[in-house]
Design brief:
This protein is an alpha/beta fold. Helix content is 30%, strand content 16%. The strands form three sheets. It has an eight-stranded parallel beta sheet. The chain has a three-stranded antiparallel beta sheet with strand order 7-11-10, with no helix packed on it. α2 runs parallel beside α3, α3 runs parallel beside α4 and α6 packs parallel to α7.
Length: 328
């Protein structure tokens, strides 16, 4: 299998994309993934312009290889996207809504445009809009989830619908077997989040990482529960004190949920995090970390060890045949 043109333009050795796992996706993680021959990603939607400037400067020190910036289109992103393009970021991805209006500006800078989708109709619209890569995210995925279909059902139908545009499979892929399965379904590459939660470079709170390493797929919970800051959005996270108390109370709606209005944790800058916030626990946070949103996909039970991002890329790469590795 020959590696496709968007992958060549991104100088990939293997088409493994580290998903933009919110604030857990540190510059160190993204750079390490890119340096290992995949594509690292930063989540850029909720950072200030000043924070993005600092992140981009740090990325320029940590890697000379291409990396990506992700934007969630439920939120205002225009100024952030413009700044990102001005800094020459080589891959721009969009989630939750269609980013077709931004494709011409992205292509004008020579960057790759990527759309994450959760349905066949969304995939066709992305293809018509001229996206270079389409990410088919099944409901197996952790974090915020776009699809009602599982990855096994969604990916091959998307591949058939948008050929010859390369499709990345997302959701439930944490080891070489998942990668091999994605390739068998017709995917040209993979988009992986949960496995990178166990990376040494991830900006993840130790308690959250320990929960990831000790969890099974049965421990994940699909809901819209952690909705403060991002309402009406389905997500998959680990069951924890917040989910269990809410279920025990009969699943009431806001503002009548157990502990509604409580602040459960604090960031290093002193800002507080309410129960039911969509924020994930990062290093330096203090408080009741177990009560926060602990995002994880259904394949979390296959994540058993903490290791460098480069080792994760190498292990995932074993799922591709040697002809798929762009001369690596």
């Amino acid at each position: 299998m020959q590696i496709s043109d968007p992958f060549r333009r991104l100088e990939l050795k293997v088409p493994i994309f580290q998903a933009p796992i919110g604030s857990v996706a540190s510059p160190e993680l993204a750079a390490a993934t890119s340096n290992a021959g995949g594509l690292g990603h930063l989540a850029c939607t909720w950072r200030s312009l000043e924070q993005l400037q600092q992140l981009f400067a740090k990325m320029n020190v940590l890697t000379k290889r291409p990396w990506g910036a992700n934007f969630v289109l439920n939120f205002p992103i225009e100024e952030r996207l413009l700044l990102t393009l001005e800094h020459g970021v080589r891959a721009i991805s969009f989630f939750w809504r269609n980013g077709e209006r931004y494709v011409p500006a992205i292509h004008a800078t020579g960057a790759i445009a990527i759309q994450v989708i959760g349905s066949i109709a969304e995939a066709r619209r992305a293809a018509e809009a001229g996206f270079d890569l389409i990410v088919a995210q099944g409901c197996d995925a952790g974090g915020h989830v776009r699809s009602d279909l599982g990855t096994m059902s969604l990916v091959p139908e998307v591949v058939d619908a948008v050929t010859p545009i390369p499709v990345l499979a997302a959701g439930g892929i944490t080891d070489r077997r998942g990668v091999a399965a994605a390739v068998a379904l017709g995917a040209a590459g993979v988009w992986v989040g949960t496995r990178f939660l166990a990376a040494e470079e991830a900006d993840i709170h130790p308690h959250y990482q320990e929960r990831i390493l000790g969890a099974s797929g049965n421990d994940t919970f699909y809901s819209e529960l952690f909705d403060i800051g991002w309402p009406n959005a389905s997500l998959r996270a680990l069951r924890n004190r917040t989910t269990e108390e809410w279920l025990a109370a009969g699943g009431p709606k806001a503002p009548s949920r157990p502990g509604e209005g409580d602040f459960v944790a604090q960031r290093p800058d002193g800002s507080t995090i309410p129960r039911y916030s969509f924020s994930a626990p990062t290093r330096g946070m203090t408080g009741d970390i177990e009560a926060m949103a602990l995002y994880a996909g259904q394949a979390v039970g296959l994540v058993k060890k903490r290791q460098p991002a480069a080792s994760i890329v190498s292990e995932l790469a074993a799922g591709f045949d040697s002809n798929h590795r762009s001369g690596a």
